[in-house]
Design goal:
By secondary structure, the protein is mostly helical. About 80% of the residues lie in helices and about 0% in strands. It is built from 13 helices and no strands. The protein has helices at about 1-30, 35-65, 70-100, 105-110, 115-125, 130-150, 160-180, 185-210, 215-220, 220-240, 250-255, 255-270, 275-295. The two termini are about 20 Å apart.
């Protein structure tokens, strides 16, 4: 239970960082394209985590020495996990940017947040038991996201479909992380490798679709550094580590607080005004997350 609480706290911090990074990411788009931005932040996330991986591996080897064979297995599983996670993360991030450019921010936020219900659905296909309370939390959270994000008539366009595909990709990303962290792996190494893979994937798209300049990247340096070090290097690593101790369905609810924190930071930093409807949406999402943490009594056999 203690480790689960620690995992939940790490995911809450993750959502807080992602929400605050919304301001930096919005500002960065004034200087560079979405693929260039993703490429730059992911390379920074990769570089930041290299010394962290080496430090914790050295410390871990002193406390729990591994044989040569065990170390090889750990590295092999971690690299394989990082490659799969990185491919899904790279696709999800790029698809999201395309969708946002073709639809309104409110609709994009709501549709992307649908991953909170897609993860339990995917869990059913993997024969995982989903507590009824989680379905209630999902329903409450979806209602909250509707109040928070949707400000206009709801219609489905091309950009909306891209955002829906993005939600599916992020759902798969959560499930892939859950799969590999359940094995004998190094969570920080998985995160480090995933950023390298996502960066390479974004680089290919940048070369094909964009023509970035060093001047533009330098002008966006502060926003890229913030997203690269905190949003990528710290937050995504916390996600990978925390999911060892947190159920995927609960993890999605905790991470979905990103949208609530984004709205709050938008109000505090960008001076955006939250309406009563949007504030009610924030409250409902918080309620859903809290309900998901309440332990249920076990059934008597």
């Amino acid at each position: 239970m203690k480790k689960e609480m620690q995992g939940n706290l790490m995911l809450l911090i993750t959502a807080l960082i992602w929400g605050s990074a919304f301001v930096a990411q919005s500002a960065g788009m004034e200087y560079v394209g979405p693929f260039t931005y993703n490429m730059s932040r992911n390379y920074i996330g990769f570089l930041v985590l290299i010394p962290v991986v080496l430090f914790f591996r050295k410390t871990g080897q002193k406390e729990h020495p591994l044989t040569k064979e065990e170390n090889s297995e750990l590295n092999r599983n971690s690299i394989r996990g990082g490659i799969f996670c990185g491919l899904v993360l790279g696709i999800a991030s790029c698809v999201q940017q395309i969708g946002v450019s073709m639809t309104t921010a409110g609709k994009a936020g709501f549709i992307t947040a649908l991953y909170i219900i897609l993860v339990p659905i995917l869990g059913i296909f993997l024969k995982k038991r989903i507590p009824k309370i989680i379905w209630l939390c999902v329903a409450i959270a979806l209602t909250g996201f509707w109040l928070l994000c949707i400000k206009e008539g709801f219609t489905i366009g091309t950009g909306d479909l891209f955002c829906l595909l993005c939600a599916l990709c992020f759902s798969v990303h959560i499930m892939v992380i859950d799969h590999f962290t359940a094995q004998k792996t190094d969570s920080i190494m998985i995160s480090c490798v995933q950023f390298l893979v996502a960066a390479v994937f974004s680089t290919i798209l940048t070369v094909i679709f964009e023509t970035p300049t060093w001047t533009a990247i330098w002008d966006a340096k502060l926003t890229i550094l913030y997203a690269g070090v905190l949003s990528s290097g710290v937050a995504y690593t916390l996600q990978v580590v925390a999911q060892r101790y947190t159920r995927p369905t609960v993890a999605t609810l905790l991470m979905s607080l990103e949208s609530v924190f984004a709205a709050l930071f938008g109000a505090l930093i960008l001076h955006e005004i939250l309406t009563e409807k949007e504030l009610l949406g924030c409250v409902l999402v918080f309620v859903a997350v809290i309900l998901a943490q309440i332990p249920l009594p076990e059934r008597r056999k």
